[in-house]
Design goal:
Blueprint: E1 2-9, E2 16-26, E3 29-41, E4 52-57, E5 63-68, H1 70-81, H2 87-152, H3 160-174
Antiparallel strand pairs: 1-2, 1-4, 2-3, 4-5
Length: about 180
C-alpha cells in the first residue's frame, strides 16, 4: 500500500526511520495517519532528514519501494492548487452541497404532503360520489313508489310540458 512519509535520522546511532504521515485509500483518496506511525528503514541514505517520500509497504510492513515525493507533490499542486481548489473552496462546496441536500429533502417532503392531500381529496370525492349515487337511487325508489300509488288510485298529474303550454296560452290572452 502506498504511503507518504518523512525521513528521520537518529543522531545518536545514525539509524533511519520513516514516519508514515498518510496512506492511499484509493486513486484520489488519502487518509492521514494520526498519530503518525514509524518504521525502520535500511539503506535509505539517499534521502536527507525531513525529506518527503512515497513508500510502497507490504501488509507485513516490508518496504517494497521508496522514491522522492517531489514529483507527486508537484503533480498534486498542479492538479488541485493551481485551479483554485483550496480548503476554503472545498468547505464552500460542502456547505453548498449540504444546502442542496436540505432543499431536496424539503421539496421531497412537500411533494409527499401534496400527494397525501390529493389522495385525501380523491377519497373524499369518491365518498361524495357514492353518497350522491345512493341519494339518487333513494329518490328514484321514492318516485317509483309515488308513481305506483298514483296509478293505484287512478290519479294523473299534469305533465310539466302541459303546465307550460297552459301558462303560455294564458299569457297570449292578456296581450
Amino acid at each position: 500500500m502506498l504511503h507518504l512519509g518523512e525521513v528521520q535520522k537518529n543522531d545518536k546511532d545514525g539509524s533511519i526511520k520513516l514516519q508514515l504521515l498518510a496512506r492511499q485509500e484509493s486513486d484520489d483518496c488519502w487518509a492521514v495517519i494520526n498519530p503518525p506511525e514509524s518504521i525502520s528503514l535500511d539503506g535509505a541514505n539517499a534521502f536527507h532528514q525531513g525529506s518527503l517520500v512515497l513508500v510502497d509497504i507490504s501488509d507485513n510492513q516490508e518496504v517494497l519501494d521508496i522514491q522522492s515525493a517531489k514529483e507527486w507533490v508537484l503533480n498534486f499542486v498542479h492538479r488541485y492548487l493551481t485551479i483554485g481548489i483550496t480548503p476554503m473552496f472545498l468547505q464552500e462546496e460542502v456547505t453548498r452541497t449540504e444546502q442542496w441536500r436540505q432543499d431536496l429533502t424539503l421539496q421531497s417532503q412537500d411533494l409527499t404532503r401534496q400527494r397525501a392531500e390529493m389522495e385525501a381529496r380523491r377519497e373524499n370525492i369518491q365518498a361524495l360520489e357514492i353518497e350522491l349515487k345512493l341519494q339518487q337511487q333513494q329518490m328514484e325508489e321514492r318516485e317509483a313508489k309515488l308513481q305506483d300509488q298514483l296509478e293505484k288510485y287512478n290519479i294523473t298529474l299534469p305533465d310539466e310540458d302541459d303546465e307550460e303550454d297552459e301558462g303560455d296560452k294564458g299569457d297570449e290572452g292578456d296581450g
